[in-house]
Automatic annotation (TrEMBL):
Protein name as it appears in the record: Glyoxalase
Domain VOC stretches: 10-136
Classification via PROSITE patterns: VOC (PS51819)
Organism: Neptunicoccus cionae
InterPro entries: Extradiol_RC_dioxygenase (IPR052537), Glyas_Bleomycin-R_OHBP_Dase (IPR029068), Glyas_Fos-R_dOase_dom (IPR004360), VOC_core (IPR037523)
Top-level taxon in the UniProt lineage: Bacteria
Length: 180
């Protein structure tokens, strides 16, 4: 019997466990600019509130809240099966300003880290969740996706026996994908 995968089309939403409502609204809307678009009871546990935030691309991030919950006082455990971090796509202009803007709101960060094909900046939300702001350092050629560019850049990296994708690999992939 042939096994056919269940084909996904992208992330629909991500749901996090938050503390009280205001802590979530202050962070996701106030710090990261994700508008609270609606809220309702958690339909599986009506005593829990369910907040829906717009991530900027029409998808949502949702947070379960209860007024008696408080943010944890210690770092979240990194055990198998747990979420390591969540990454949000931002522009190059935004990532260049993010460290100072986060600092002004009381959030420390890693500073910008060059990942070859993208820049990353990490910080923690009030619950201790590691949040990444990620910005591609390229735009794909017309008719191609970021995934197309990265797939070819990976092949170029393997050809040169490199440890990771570097900026030159991306530039070469862009050139090859742009050939007419």
């Amino acid at each position: 019997m042939t096994h056919v995968p269940v084909q996904v089309q992208g992330i629909h939403h991500i749901t996090l466990n938050g503390a009280d409502r205001q802590t979530s609204v202050d962070f996701w809307e106030g710090v990261l600019g994700m508008p609270l678009i609606f809220e309702q009871p958690n339909l599986d546990a009506p005593e829990i509130n369910h907040l829906y935030f717009d991530t900027g691309d029409g998808r949502t991030l949702t947070v379960f809240t209860e007024e008696g919950r408080q943010p944890p006082s210690q770092k979240l455990a990194q055990q198998p099966g747990s979420l390591h971090h969540i990454a949000f796509w931002v522009s190059q202009a935004t990532i260049r300003l993010a460290e100072d803007r986060l600092k002004a709101q009381g959030y420390g960060s890693s500073g910008i880290k060059d990942r070859g094909f993208m820049d990353s900046l990490y910080f923690r939300d009030p619950m201790g969740l590691l949040v990444e702001l990620a910005s591609y350092k390229f735009d794909p050629p017309q008719g191609k996706t970021h995934g197309d560019v990265l797939n070819l850049a990976h092949k170029i990296r393997l050809e040169r026996d490199g440890l990771a994708i570097e900026t030159a690999d991306v530039a070469d992939a862009l050139a090859r994908l742009s050939e007419r």
